[in-house]
Sequence to fold (66 residues):
Amino acid sequence: MYTLMKTFNLKLLKTEAPLFFFALFIAESFYHFHSFMLELFAFLGTWYLLSYAISHVLKDENEKVR
Fold:
């Protein structure tokens, strides 16, 4: 955790914060497994997949600009 916070930058925050809240909204709205661990893993998986998708969309846009 220390290393993550040490390497944290504002650009990462601007990208990940909206995805965090969108994933949290999805988890709160749709995931009702009646188990904290299952809901936590589903939330983290959703956040990861959203981040992965957005990073590839942004990468493709950057390649088109060049």
The helical segments are 2-6, 10-30, 36-65.
